[in-house]
Amino acid sequence: MFNDPISDLIVRLKNASMVETGTVSLPHSNVKEGIAEILKKEGYLSDFEVKKEGSKKELIMHLSEINGEIRPLEVRRISKPGRRVYAKAKDIMKFKRGLGAVVLSTPSGLMTGKDALAKKLGGEVLFKII
Known about the structure:
Layout: H1 5-18, E1 23-27, H2 30-42, E2 45-53, E3 56-63, E4 65-66, E5 69-70, E6 75-77, E7 86-87, H3 92-96, E8 101-106, E9 109-112, H4 113-119, E10 123-129
Antiparallel strand pairs: 1-3, 2-3, 4-5, 6-10, 7-10, 8-9, 8-10
């Protein structure tokens, strides 16, 4: 059993990027599916799918490619189970610094830092991806 499913997702994405494996499969949850939607919208994933086998669901993510090679990813977990990090809308730029995307959990759901700034929402800073 995993203590932190978001960190598990991040580690699997980083490992798949390093060994240049095109797909990542992991147990499904609504939060992971929301993160996959955000990563697809931002261009880090080419596609994702949910497969149901019996009573279990599996989330399969396909990493995007650049010139036939898997896009290298650098993902850093910001908020951890032992140390939650929250940011107001004006403080989101401190995490982004112009590179990549920041994924936040806001009262309106999961969204990128850019979307949270546009809606003037703050929330828990989950991770940063470059």
